[in-house]
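Notes, p. 3: input format for complexes.
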Amino acid sequence: MFKKNYMKFALVAVAVFALALAGCTNDVENGGEEAVLSIGEQLDYTITGIDAGAGVVRSAEQAVEDYGLNYTVQSSSGAAMTQALSDAIANEEPIIVTGWNPHWKFAAYDLKYLDDPKGSFGESENINSIARLGLSEDMPEAYQILDNFFWEGSDMEDVMIQVNNGEEPEDVARQWVDENQDKVAVWTEGVDAVDGVEINLAYVAWDSEIASTNVIGTVLSDMGYDVTLTQVENGPMWEAVASGQTDAIVAAWLPGTHGDHYDKYEGEFDDLGPNLEGAKIGLVVPAYMDIDSIEDLIED
Ligand code: PBE
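Output follows (300 residues plus 1,1-dimethyl-prolinium):
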């Protein structure tokens, strides 16, 4: 069992977003000839983003610039984005979201990334674990476990899918750890248990990071740590690990997505390398949409 410390709630953002969305439905009244609206017109030139601090939102704004698009990236939250996606799909309406994988949405819906020939979203990403300076001396056992932590995208998605089904992240993590003791044994091999040492992990409420942080938190808890998970925004997460306010994060998307934060604080943290390889970010649309590339959003 570990404590949770929710510092921010996105409920207001969700409500505002839902209202905005309700105003965006596209009624084409016509007396005979059907008006053919472009995708941009149908979407009111809106890309559905997540929290403003997320790297994928910044990259989407970069894409708008790189491709000369007429679109605005609307920030909200990860939860509001997946709700908007699910609503659009239920009505077979167009939608463009800032997406990433690993993510349960690819298992739940038939989706596609838009091609990104200009590379605004970068290439394949790794998710790294980052410790505060001094953790290796202060908590060598936790440091070793965090350094060993490595899993596959499919592992993370297994956790994410169950959380999306409505189970508590902590319960799903407990179950995953119990069912994957072979993997956990590799992360904890040769590491001594401790007796109630306090450790803090910071994370952002992205579905992927809710999964990873709860799983590694459960592993550390099983090794005797008194674990607190602190939910913050992206910028503050990096600031917290660089300043030593948190002990570690397992949510560093590199080299592109969080590259600006990484560069800003380089030398002020200890990079433990990837805990997951082959992650990706980009613009994601339902497969039924008749576009394949970000270039298809360019209008004269
Ligand atoms: N994400 C998930 C984050 C990193 C993890 C892709 C939404 C971001 O864009 O910063």
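The pocket of 1,1-dimethyl-prolinium is lined by residues 50, 54-56, 100, 206, 208-209, 234, 253, 257, 281 (CB under 6 Å).
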